[in-house]
Write a structure and sequence with these properties.
This protein is an alpha+beta fold. The protein has 20 helices and ten strands. The strands form four sheets. The chain has a four-stranded mixed sheet. The protein has a two-stranded antiparallel sheet with strand order 1-6.
Length: 508
């Protein structure tokens, strides 16, 4: 059964044994050699396919080109065989921390992979790039990689269930540093002491403000989780060399909780698996059908339904106003409650537009769907009728939708809301949606078939047909893969694709 760990701040003169610190408790979970259950293995395969899909669609986008160039500027380190970089031939290897960096940026760039929302929000698939990179570097097999990924998901999602970061304007990558470090510890079979040091340092080096997701959002949004993964790899390396970390990192008088989160009087209850309990958290996460912030997924599905049923609302001349009644999080992060004028700016960056529910809902209403490229072009954002409709869309917090957003009951947890569209002829259209169609409880839940279809859709423009089939056949045997086969767990771009885009010059 799950064990709830009460975590509070301790003054320096108080005694808090290492074994009672949250970093140690996390490490105990990571070091527990419990078997990975078949349905969890199946979902891990799905998420590796999902990550590869969105990475394929990003291969020639500027942030990925820059990150890839940085990785390839760092040759394989002496302690292993190196790791592959998405898009490149398997012979073009990098040191594992830099491969984790480049591949992490590719996975996050389009904001199109899996999600878990609770007290904090997260994309737990961000754990996969550093774990694959380390597995390739050290020669781990598929079974070890599966165990490591199960841990990464478990730890990040358990922290997300309990500890809110965004309330204090701390970026959610602060939960990735510890989770990826823990996952690598499982992968490598490290002891509790070593893992706990890596977990503590993984947290200490990844606490940053969430300005990266505020106002005019920059390309760093894609880099931030990759940075956390890279820091986790480096933290594990230092811990393996016997180096220690700030302690207690969560509970200390000058630690993260006391100064970055709820303060010296704060306390959190963090659920973690008991000894011998299977790590099943990944089954509570969900992927995206659409390339946009997760809180927008259900709204896109509702908009395409309204597009079919009420085509007249695509014309702004017929619409007086559109109000999306939704959760506090959606209202204040991607809605008008954020008070970011950039969310209504036709010249805003793609990174900003995919965090603007007024923009997303307006475009989906007009187009009856969503496209990961076409829906974000400057021409699409600048279309006069779209701008007119977009500026009539606002959000409002609704207490019931906020309650459902934070519910721990999966049957009532919701990420949507209710829309009220007032037409110029006096009519009102009201509709609502709780979860996205692709959600496990949605109208069309994603299963292996949908993950594979998403991969084919995004990979076909950039990978050869034979490469698509090779990758799918390989990943579907994940728990059985040899170390040599794990090193082939990457995607190789069509000949000439990577060379078709200029590679920026930097320091390295």
């Amino acid at each position: 059964m799950t064990v709830t760990h009460h975590v509070r701040v301790y003054k320096s003169e108080e005694t808090l044994r290492r074994e009672d610190q949250l970093a140690w408790k996390i490490a105990e979970v990571a070091a527990d050699p419990v078997a990975v259950e078949p349905d969890v293995v199946d979902m891990i395969i799905n998420r590796i396919i999902d990550n590869a899909a969105v990475a394929a669609a990003s291969l020639v986008r500027a942030p990925i080109v820059a990150a890839r160039a940085q990785a390839l500027a760092h040759p394989v380190s002496t302690g292993g065989s190196g790791a592959t970089v998405f898009g490149c031939a398997p012979t073009e290897l990098s040191s594992p921390e830099w491969a984790a960096w480049a591949n992490g940026v590719a996975v996050r760039e389009l904001d199109y992979h899996d999600t878990f929302l609770a007290a904090e929000y997260s994309h737990p698939g961000d754990n996969i790039p550093p774990l694959v990179a380390v597995a390739q570097h050290v020669g781990a097999d598929g079974a070890a990689l599966v165990r490591g990924i199960a841990t990464g998901y478990e730890i990040q999602m358990d922290l997300v269930r309990a500890i809110c970061l965004h309330q204090h304007k701390i970026d959610h990558i602060a939960h990735i540093g510890p989770s990826a470090a823990a996952g690598i510890g499982t992968l490598l079979g490290l002891d509790v002491e070593t893992i706990s040091q890596a977990v503590a340092q993984g947290l200490h080096t990844t606490t940053a403000t969430r300005q990266s997701r505020k106002g005019e959002i920059s390309t760093w949004k894609a880099y931030a989780p990759a940075f956390a993964g890279k820091m986790a790899v480096e933290a594990v390396d230092r811990a393996m060399r016997g180096q220690t970390s700030p302690s207690p990192i969560y509970e200390g008088e000058d630690g993260v909780i006391a100064w970055l989160l709820d303060g010296p009087d704060a306390a959190y209850d963090v659920p973690l698996p008991a000894a011998g309990e299977a790590k099943r958290a990944i089954l509570d996460s969900y992927t995206k059908e659409h390339s946009a912030e997760y809180q927008a997924q259900a709204w896109i599905d509702l908009a395409r339904k309204l597009h079919r049923e009420h085509p007249e609302i695509a014309d702004p001349a017929n619409v007086e106003r559109v109000v999306l009644h939704t959760s506090h999080h959606t209202h204040t992060v991607i809605g008008s409650g954020a008070n970011d004028p950039q969310k209504y700016d036709p010249a805003a960056t793609r990174e900003t537009l995919d965090h603007s529910i007024p923009y997303i809902f307006a475009v989906a209403l007009q187009d009856g769907g969503w496209h990961h490229v076409d829906s974000y072009t400057p021409e699409r954002a600048g279309r006069a009728d779209t701008v007119a409709l977009w500026h009539k869309v606002t959000t409002a917090e609704d207490a019931e939708w906020t309650r459902r957003y934070h519910s721990i009951d999966p049957a009532e947890k919701a990420f949507g809301g209710r829309v009220e569209i007032t037409l110029t002829d006096g009519r009102t259209i009201v509709d609502e949606i709780a979860v996205a169609d692709a959600h496990p409880l949605g109208a069309r839940p994603f299963a292996r078939e949908q993950y594979v279809a998403k991969f084919r859709l995004l990979a076909e423009p950039v990978l050869e047909p034979a490469e698509i089939e090779r990758f799918l056949a390989l990943v579907e045997r994940l728990p059985e893969l040899s170390a040599a086969e794990v090193r082939e767990l990457t995607i190789i771009a069509r000949p000439g694709l990577l060379a078709s885009v200029p590679s920026p010059k930097g320091l390295f």
